[in-house]
UniProtKB/TrEMBL annotation:
Signal peptide: none annotated. Residues 284-540 form the EAL domain. One of its GO terms (molecular function) is cyclic-guanylate-specific phosphodiesterase activity. It comes from the Bacteria. This is Bifunctional diguanylate cyclase/phosphodiesterase.
Amino acid sequence: MPTGWMWDATTTLEALGAADVALWLWEPENDRLRLTGATRALGLGPLSPDCSSAALRALSLPQDRAFAEDILRIREPGAEVAVRLRMRAGGVCIWRGVWLEDGCRAAGVVALESRFAASDQDGLTGLLDRGGFLAGARERLQAAGRHELIVADLDRLRRLNEALGHERADLVLAALGSRLAAAFPAGALLGRIGEDEFAALAPVEVSPGPDALRRALEQPLRVAGFDIHPTLSIGAVEASGGLDAPEAAELLRRAELAVESAKSHGRGGAAAYGRTLETDGLSRLALEGDLRGAMARGELAPYYQPIVRLSTGALSGFEALVRWRHPRRGLLTPEQFLPLLDEMGLMRELGAMMMREAARQLSQWRLRHRAAGELSVAVNLSTGEIDRPDLVADVARIRQETGLPPGALKLEVTESDVMRDPDRAAVILEDLRAAGAGLALDDFGTGFSSLSYLTRLPFDTLKIDRYFVRTMATNTGSAKIVSSVVKLGQDLSLEVVAEGVENAGMARQLLALGCDYGQGFGYAPALSAQEAEVYLNESYVDGAAPVKARGSRG
């Protein structure tokens, strides 16, 4: 190279074009963004050579406009800009730069995301991956002060993948990543640390906290014609930074323990880390060992939650819910052991047992109590159980053995099981109906399905997910969903059952909407067979099942 050779403008532009890179300069006082380089290849052609801030916002995708604002926001001299922005006319671009010393301008480069070899970045969301997040957390925890780490886990990602397919489910995860970035202040450390798990680390004084994060992430969204209502289990932990700060991996482990604790309370739970969670984590291994022989020992058994006609208070039937009568730990709820049972591949065996035992119990009640002749019992089919080869034969054999009339044994099917292969599901459901089973679509309203299939599948009952029932008094979106499902059931001549009825106020609100039946702690929790029989007797003697005036569980 000749001595004294210097880059000229033409050579610079040629080099930028070859590398698919553009330079940008933002002058907020003049409301002018200047661009030069490979703007067309990056989808920035309509903005070049200069444009206003409004033009940048307009060209960015609506869900990413908060990131466009991050480029435009005035900062202190020396502050860095690093933004992942999707444009309408191009791919995903990374904008990097710095605010110059005069504090009036920012300048930097923009290139396709693929040009930045960021090994610590999650390709789907643009957030840090687990390794990158931990590395950043180690650095942040060196600073003095209180820090809050929040971990949010998307509930039922497997069902989402089954219902929508992985590509559409990825759109949901990408949207949640964008919402996470918008919910936290600039400078917060954000990551996607697992397939369905997000994390955020920020100083306590600027962290929005778990409740604000939930409100941001659980807003409904629409993907490929499907209405999605995401719910998340959230765990949080605080720690002091500085010399005595915990190691980043240890802090993340504590937050994830809190998430597991939140999940044990059902969908959409939240929990803070505490020392008691450590012993819970250790006991999980022992629990798994105990579970291997629990079914053979008869420790897993159906418990029965009443289903009540809202208009009269009359007992209509029961839903059979599994409980584990552990010899040392007492009565365990499904959240405490079903995930383990699923990992062990025993869910179908459990489903067959629950169907057999619940039908046998109902048959005994009908023989002993003349008034129980119209009762039914509902049993949940676990994910994938609809494809069990001997399911239809089991239903026919159980009905023959117990003498139950058609419809007395109801099977509750999830939306994801139906939507995975609607045509195949239609054939199986028709066979189950022909074998004498009643059919209910469980957790309806969670939004993983299209409504069109309802008109051609032989359901006789819709069950409204308890989350929407619980929150309908305080959340207008939940109230609209409950009202819509009830109206849909009326239009299709389907019975509608609302889960999660906590008190008389909820029952009255549901009845006013035209809902047929309710179940929940407002009437009774899941009862042992003996307790359920007492409840049955009392409800017929009193003429109605009582509902609590107030309640806190559903």
